[in-house]
Amino acid sequence: MRLPARRLLPLTALSAASALLTGCFTGDGSASSGADGKRVRVAMMQPPRSGLSPLSDDAFKLSRWSTAETLVKLDATGDAQPALATSWQQSGRTWSFEIRDGVTFHDGTKLDAEAVVRSLTKAATAAPKPRILDGVELTAKAADADTVTVTTATEDPLVPQRLSSPQLSILAAKAYTGKTVNPLGAGTGPFELTKVNGTSSATLDRYDAYWGGKAKAPGIDVRFVPDGTARAAALRSGEADIVEAVPVSQAALLEKDLVTEVPMPRTNTLYLNTEKGVFKDASLRAAAREAIDAESIVRGVYEGRADVAEGLLGPALPWADELREPVTRAKAGDPAGRTVTIGTFTDRAELPEVAAALQQQLQKAGFKVKLDVREYANIESDALAGAFDAFILSRATVLDSGDPAAYFYSDFASDGSFNIAQLSDPSVDAALKKAGETPTGDARRQAVIAAEAAVLATDAAVPMLHERVIQGDAAGVVGAAHDPRERELVTAATYVK
Prior knowledge:
With about 500 residues, the protein is an alpha+beta fold. The chain has 14 helices and 21 strands. Strands 3, 10, 11, 12, 13, 14, 15, 16, 17, 18 and 19 form an eleven-stranded mixed sheet that branches. Strands 6-7-9-8 form a four-stranded antiparallel sheet, covered by helices on one side. The protein has a two-stranded antiparallel ribbon with strand order 1-2. The longest helix is centred in the C-terminal third of the chain and has 17 residues. The protein is globular and about 70 Å long. It comes from Streptomyces aurantiogriseus.
């Protein structure tokens, strides 16, 4: 559903966007162009947090700019497809990958098995590991110049999907010569990262020797604009061609033809602390669940631009709803005025509003509610340490593998690395183990839904709504990616008229 434009943005918002974007895009607000066309100007939400190291979440920026690539990519259904590897086969705990011939890194060096082993080994031995390797022991060896074997401690049917993670991008040797991984001029994609200006901007130029064919745009100019109003205003004023993560509050103010919405595998969830405090009591977790009116949050906070959750997995994974069955949960107890503290963060514009709405709903049910709202970087450690009774999180449910089992394990296993609910439940652990070991396909999907049911039965997490990708594309933009998994944005096929 798209809402009609209701009013123009105020001049102050346009001015703010101009101030934030000055220095990356040309001063007159038009895209710079040469004999071979216009450069693509992109306004992105979050600045780099780790110097664009692919071992961090910054990896997704490298992927969205088409500068760093992986051995495998995922299709729309989450199945593995060839990328820098052309084929693969499994033999027990070992997978063999054939490396694509004729690929060069942006520094001119050749992609071969040794280069792949170097990148995968760096990721597998990093501290902390990329989250896609959470609980996975992985070693890579060169069988010959064009073949890499990847071996895991136990049989893992998900190895190809894991290797699609942007955090396992394959970079040139030069990227690993310093204390941190530096992707500058070290990728294999259609665009070469040529300049990074801290947390302000980045510049990419077309790499004409790209193995997949010459990109249509001569380059990409990126500006990091955390303020959502400024990002939306930049699209209206013509200072940006593509704007990611348009806030719901701004989407309705843009011309409808400039806005695209795609259901994404991201769920807005209330995690309840099962280890200590008020919500250690299952009946009070049930009381919190029954108090939540997700439909009113979708209408009031998201202006209808989200989907009410039936489970942890949403419409971006249509098979989930087809397989899901009713879950038996605990009966609600009496909150009796007990005080709970809910944490969340400001980085996603809607979450503080969601927190305020939940505060009212839970108070109406008999709880006393305090809110603790900070920037994500300043609150994540407290959330993971169980410092809150509840925490509101906008969580990607397929993480980097395109498979929900990794998300379920990370968030709900007793030893999961992102277990904000502090859940330790043998039945949940057993269901997660089965889901992780089941081969890909229908059987694995059934096991994943069984794991979802096991988690929901504990009320450790109350799914509220499923978000949508809201992206702004200027009228002259052709071929911008609208990716539910937020891995692609500007591709070799993207250009500006």
